[in-house]
Amino acid sequence: MKKSIAIFDTTLRDGTQGEGISLSAEDKFKIARRLDSLGVHYIEGGIPGSNSKDIEFFRRIKSYTWNARFVAFGSTRRKDSIADQDANLNRIIEAQVPAATLVGKAWDFHVHTALQTSLEENLAMIADSIAYLKQHQLEVMLDAEHFFDGFKHNSEYALQVLRTAANAGADWVVLCDTNGGTLPHEIHQIVSAAIEGTQVKIGIHTHNDCELAVANSLAAVQAGALQVQGTMNGYGERCGNANLCSIIPNLQLKLDYNCIADDQLQQLTSVARYVSEIANVNMPVNQPYVGNASFAHKGGIHVSAILKDSRTYEHIQPELVGNKQRVLVSELAGQSNVLSKAQQLGYELDAGKPATKAIIERIKQLEHEGYQFEGADASLELMLRQAISNEQEPFQFESFKILVEKSKNRPVVSEAIVKINIDNESIYMAAEGNGPVNALDNALRKALSRHYPGIEDMHLTDYKVRVLDESDTTAAKVRVLIESTDFEHTWSTVGVSQNVIEASWEALVDSIRYALYGKEKKLQTNERKESLGIVNH
Ligand SMILES: CC(=O)SCCNC(=O)CCNC(=O)[C@H](O)C(C)(C)COP(=O)(O)OP(=O)(O)OC[C@H]1O[C@@H](n2cnc3c(N)ncnc32)[C@H](O)[C@@H]1OP(=O)(O)O
Ligand SMILES: CC(=O)C(=O)O
Known about the structure:
Blueprint: E1 6-9, H1 25-38, E2 42-46, H2 52-60, E3 69-75, H3 87-94, E4 99-105, H4 108-115, H5 119-135, E5 139-145, H6 147-153, H7 155-167, E6 172-177, H8 184-197, E7 201-206, H9 213-223, E8 227-230, H10 244-254, H11 262-265, H12 268-279, E9 296-297, H13 300-308, E10 326-327, H14 335-344, H15 354-369, H16 377-389, E11 396-405, E12 413-422, E13 425-433, H17 436-448, E14 459-467, E15 478-485, E16 490-497, H18 500-517, H19 519-531
Parallel strand pairs: 1-2, 1-8, 2-3, 3-4, 4-5, 5-6, 6-7, 7-8, 9-10
Antiparallel strand pairs: 11-12, 12-13, 14-15, 15-16
The site of acetyl coenzyme *A has 17 residues, from strand 4 and helix 4.
């Protein structure tokens, strides 16, 4: 039978100790709902002795039924005081959760330097605090802070801390690599020694300062730890905590431990991305298992092989963690990339035919000039479509002009005048905007609106500019990537020029062409809007 490992998520506590991460009580609640459905066993929600937001969070969770056990965090009682008069301990009890984590010192240096007390008093602080929470029927875990550094300097005292906690009734002792400086082989040795030297269940809590938090957690489990503490996407103090998005699949898919159910594991990618959205932290595309590029194939040799059998370049099936395979088209593409991409987009291309070769050559040429299609699917689709079906353009460009006016006591205003031709009719249109690109976008859409009424539904959501040849500032090219949406779909387009306005125009026109080509999608959108009772004015 597979051995079970308890997954303890501390995104809402240690995760929020990461720089730039701040979650409201509502954010925490939303994340907790997703963690609960993912199947983690413990959710450490915050520190009720620290702030009223966390007190509010623990109050809010009472209105729902949860599968996970909620945990409130705090430190052992203050030195030279009494546990039942300790404000932090009492806030934990008042949070009315089933479990508590107490952080206690396990390194003699810290006891002397940070607490400035005696080794005996620290043991008494640990024992009194645990006993007090046990009297209130809480499941209690001692986070043995700096256990590994403590063990290296004074192993007898570090083990005494664990025994003291166990004798006071702790249900778990969690060995913390607080400074994140321990190596996997040391973790294995020290966890083994702790298991031999105590009679209580052991957990592991690691930090990523040597980029070893995941490896260290796995080493601890292999040495016998039964609980792993970590955070979603590895958020946490300094370089972060152990990343549960890697630990869970590694334990479950590689090492044959049982953490969460298989269908819950399939939620991993969406939960990781949801948490990054709520935390407002961009997720690295190359984040293992759950990143957008974790199963993205770019090199022609790779794509040719995965189309034969995905195991050639994928260590697991992406669907096991809810991710998916992607094929990227770029200058490194061979015909396999282009054929596969065309097929995904619904076009038939014949391998080896001159037309296919011409498309590949064109993509490589454009990428050489600075275009980047892997982030601009819509421009790529338009190019393929043009090459395959030679459809008529929805409008012809004639000219545009932009005026930028700054007058005293008025913000800068941009005005664009656009001239296009539709079915031999010349259309001029002017519009203002808060910047030149916004003005161009407004003028172009106004010019198109009589012929293409659905165009009001779309708008730009993101605009990125990148200088391509920074060494040659006068002749440098810029690449503009635009993301647009029409209520239901999102698409990205690209433009390149030595002039940022021209590059923006190119990406903008592609964005609008794509929206106009997608009339079928637009009809569906309108039906959906009608069904939702939304009316265009
Ligand atoms: C390894 C970890 O991640 S531990 C968790 C770290 N997280 C946080 O600190 C976030 C939440 N913290 C807070 O909101 C505040 O620090 C509070 C409310 C807990 C305490 O605030 P303050 O009373 O103003 O104390 P302050 O933060 O300045 O210093 C911490 C105090 O706790 C003491 N302390 C530290 N660890 C422990 C411990 N395990 N047991 C008891 N006391 C401890 C320190 O010695 C220091 O006491 P001192 O003021 O007598 O020097
Ligand atoms: C308790 C904790 O977060 C640590 O020691 O890292």
